[in-house]
Specification:
Strand order of the largest sheet: 1-2
Distance between the termini: 8 Å
Number of domains: 2
Shape: elongated
Structural class: mainly alpha
Helix content: over 70%
Order of helices and strands: HHHHEHHEHH
Number of strands: 2
Length: 232
């Protein structure tokens, strides 16, 4: 991580200065910086890489402990990364579409009610677990599918947790939907085997939708955020 990538947090600098018993003048002398530089940092957080290192050494902490904490993941958007990710998603989507066509036609794999149920179940679980703010963060995080350079921040780690839990919500919701479907089918058994097979086929679609979204979208995105943590 580049030291110049972020501004220093003025309040953190002030806090560390006070905890070490420094006035602005004493901190300037201890760090080898000018008083004006210390005053500027505590006002707007602007500091060169050398200044950041000097302050961190004076406080005996890591430089990143002085940085402002972003509420969203820091992402380096590059056109090449966007195109690569878009192409990968297109290939996956095309492969799934081809399989549905080979399996008997796209209409056999469409059930609007199952899809709406899963989406509502997943995002309701997200709201209960992480609040409305977590819900909005998870929705807006889908744009990070199109980048491969995500800076490690508490926000990116938090998002990875939300997405990993959404995978569980999806599969949990699909199992509940499947069981409800089985009960409904057994309670209203069709008079012919053709109707029975069709009912079971529609019932299984809820599992298919959960797997597609979990393994095709949420898990790759969650893995991308987790991998950025490991790499750093």
């Amino acid at each position: 991580m580049s030291l110049n990538a972020k501004l220093l947090d003025p309040e953190k600098v002030k806090k560390y200065r006070q905890e070490n018993g420094f006035s602005q003048e004493l901190l300037a002398k201890a760090s080898g910086l000018s008083l004006r530089t210390i005053q500027r940092i505590e006002k707007d957080g602007k500091a060169s890489a050398e200044t950041q290192l000097s302050l961190a050494a004076t406080f005996n902490i890591s430089p990143k402990e002085l940085f402002q904490v972003s509420s969203t993941p820091d992402v380096n958007w590059k056109w090449r990364n966007i195109m690569q990710s878009a192409l990968a998603l297109l290939v996956v989507g095309g492969a799934v579409f081809m399989l549905t066509v080979l399996g008997g036609g796209l209409s056999m794999f469409i059930d609007f009610y199952s899809l709406v149920y899963l989406v509502l179940f997943m995002y309701s679980g997200t709201t209960i677990a992480f609040g409305v703010q977590g819900l909005f963060k998870s929705i807006t995080s889908l744009r990070f599918l199109f980048t491969n350079e995500i800076e490690v921040t508490p926000a990116s780690q938090y998002l990875a947790v939300i997405l990993s839990k959404q995978i569980l919500f999806l599969y949990g919701g699909s199992v509940i939907g499947l069981l409800i479907g089985f009960i409904a089918i057994q309670s209203n058994m069709p008079d012919n085997s053709t109707g029975l097979r069709a009912a079971y086929a529609v019932n299984i679609l809820v599992i298919l939708y959960a797997a597609l979204f979990a393994e095709g979208v949420l898990r790759p995105l969650s893995t991308k955020l987790s991998s950025s943590v490991l790499l750093n």
